[in-house]
């Protein structure tokens, strides 16, 4: 029986593309550089960071600082510019950052399960993500939020998935994690014994692809998965 559901945040609850577009706009305003030039460097830096985390070669204690410094180096600017830009980006996001069906799904699950977030941070601190979740009412349905810059562990590390379970005294087989990144979210959760849902927008239907794992098209499909566990 599932007691706890853990959600990745970006591209699971919130649209990362909206945040990145706002970041590009903020950097463009601060630097006087065309947005297209900045977007490519941000995307390349994101992929570099994902590789570092997949190999677990980065420092969990400095995950945020390392990602900000990598972006600053790619842009050839002081890291203070990156910090200012992510702050400006956070202040300007609108409701388009919410992915379809997210609020309705969280509302449906609220009160029936312990709802948590298990999120990595990249260019902006978790405090900014918390602000966005509060601003658009998603935090009302979340029991507790866990982020890599707070717990000093990032997905796919075991410690990142186990932190919510230890806090609420829930066993891995009583928990499910859902996220959009196969290596970080899906495989990471399975390795600690949790159930897992991999969000793949190209999926045609909900499908069981592991003894404890499912592929889904969006968060909304979670309501179809839970009765199967």
From TrEMBL:
Q: Name one Pfam family in it.
A: Hydrolase
Name the keywords, alphabetized: Hydrolase
Q: Which InterPro entries match?
A: HAD-like_sf (IPR036412), HAD-SF_hydro_IA (IPR006439), HAD_sf (IPR023214), S-2-haloacid_dehalogenase (IPR051540)
One example GO MF annotation: hydrolase activity
Q: Which NCBIfam families match?
A: HAD-SF-IA-v1
Similarity comment text for this entry: Belongs to the HAD-like hydrolase superfamily.
Q: What is this protein called?
A: 2-haloalkanoic acid dehalogenase
